[in-house]
Amino acid sequence: MSTPNRFIALLDETESRFQQRQKVREEKEQLLSQGGIFAANSEDAIKRRLSHLQTPPEVGVTITDRVRGLIPPAPGIPAELERLLGTNDLMGIHFLELGTWVSRAVVRVHVQSSQGHGYGTGFMVSPRLMLTNNHVLQNATEASQSRVEFNYENGLGGNMKTSIFARLAPEMLFLTDRDLDYTLVALNPESEPAAHGWLPLIEEQGKVMVGEWVNIIQHPNGEPKQLALRENLVVDELERFLHYRTDTAPGSSGSPVFNDQWEVVALHHSGVPERDAQGRILTVDNQLWAPWMGEHRIAWKANEGVRISRVIAHIKAQALDEQKRQLRAQMFETRPPVPEASVPLRQPEPQPQNETPTVGAQVNPDGSASWTFPVTVTVSVGTGAHQTLPAPPSTPAASVPPPLAPAQAEDRELTEALATLSTARTRTYYDAEADMDAAEQYYRSIQSGQSAQALFKQLSKLVCTTHETALSYKPSMHVYPWVDLHPDLKLRSIYSGLPFDPEEFIREDFRIAQERAVRMRELMLHEASLGIERLEEEIDLLEASLPFNCEHVVPRSWFNKKNPMLGDLHHLFACEIGCNSFRSNIPYYDFPDFEEAVRDACGKRQGEEKFEPSHGKGAVARATLYFLLRYPGKVGDNNRELQQDRLMMLGTWHSDFPPDEYERHRNAAIFEKQGNRNPLIDHPEWVESIDFALGVGAIS
């Protein structure tokens, strides 16, 4: 996952190369349209390609005639050459089988860096080594914190396969180069990455020519594995790069680019974006693009890949110690298994018979689940599941278990959420008079003229005792359909201010919740072989890989993802995933103009200790101060949580951005759902009279 500045610089470099080659490229494309593929390539390039295809001598000798457009007769010509000549575009069925086989080596990269969590694509190039982009994994520190995921894809029938995660081991080997935009890194051997095969890299030239189609296997935006099949036409070949055009199937950073023989010809890394008249990058739906949206939203007019022969040459030229040389040598001296001689993918080890058997998971009232290992572990995946998970067998099944069908309750909840959204068009958005009466009754026990400490304690008791309904964390049910709507009935990101269709968020979160449930069930079936710590890590990775479009103003990690804090609507706001990741769990901060910070459409951040949102400062301040009233002592005064010296900053944000109709609507809607109110919305003047320091916990 690249920083915004690095990614923009990469786009500029790619676009500059593309523009410099415009005249050459236009000539090649004209030759392709008029004289075919041989007319658009040099005689040397044609000879190398035919030699690589092992074309019979009697076919390959008349190169000059072919360049002139004299096509040899079809009988006896290999199918690969017929496709080059344009005389036959049919593909043998083994083409798809081989494509499925090589796709096993393509992985989803979970990038954990100072910019938050993100995704890229990578692929195994030896039993232990993975190749991706430098702008995906820029240094060994990022690699040591990141993971790769095998099998994140749909199987037959559209069901998700069982994912297998692997740690990276940059201490064993880590090579990278910014100019060629590649990173080669070792995987931890405990994950048995060799079981998934790898893609051999071929240094010799002749693997592809201008005018050929290439195929890309990828995880676009971290989504399940996808294939852009013969959708990218090679239009130019530079010294170090290939340019290929597409209208429908752009590449994803770190993806392998294949020829029709499923040989890797390039490492996809960037593209040339469409721009408006002012030179601003456009999205696929013709809107202005911002870095938080991700590269998959850019409208690309061309793709660029680094020629794999150049990457290999650079890797071979690096001076390494003996251990690293041995790992590198496996790339070129070890051949992957062929499909006929394949070994099955690694299955979890059976549970030893002398161990205490595992019992089935039980769902607790707060939405978490407990398992016995033989000690009890309680974790929460944030979805507030309602059904009891089945007990796993004593030994894992030999094949991937069928996924759970969506529960009837989930179907009913989706219907209910969409119905609530539908009625929003006819409901009164905010009844000021009725809400004023409700607030007057709510605060009738609060005495005026008392000390700041006494007022804190009185309000804290009030919001606690009236919090009658502790909701499970289901933003698609409780936040998006009504609570967080703005007067135009749109959702708006709390940090970027961008509008979103609430139905889109509702359906997406339900889809994610169902996918989480399926993958959680798969984890539970293998819990005995994972162990306690590994299971907790896998659950954390699962949550990071399937995030909701919802922001906890007080980050979940600050209160260990526990209820009722997890589902308390007063600090839950709609927020696109990009901004959610950009903020991460960093405390709020107000940057002076002279202080350096990484800037984004979502706000500014510096390191892991400072984040200033672009929008919503007043709302997040009041939500944070409410949290201190409702849950005193739950968040600590340390550099990764809420420091007492920033309470004054929150008070300033509160006064600079007072409550508006949107917040008053939210407050009334939440009061209706969970029973308590945010006093700082109803009585903004009280903020100066409350000692919020009483709500901040001790240094942890």
UniProtKB/TrEMBL annotation:
Signal peptide: none annotated. Keywords: Endonuclease, Hydrolase, Nuclease, Protease, Serine protease, Signal. InterPro entries: Endonuclease-I, His-Me_finger_sf, Peptidase_S1_PA, Peptidase_S1_PA_chymotrypsin, Peptidase_S1B. The keyword Hydrolase applies. The keyword Coiled coil does not apply. Its EC number is 3.4.21.-. Pfam families: Endonuclease_1 (PF04231), Trypsin_2 (PF13365). Residues 335-367, 384-408 are annotated as: Disordered. One of its GO terms (molecular function) is serine-type peptidase activity. It is an enzyme of class 3 (hydrolase). Belongs to the peptidase S1B family. Belongs to the EndA/NucM nuclease family. This is Serine protease.
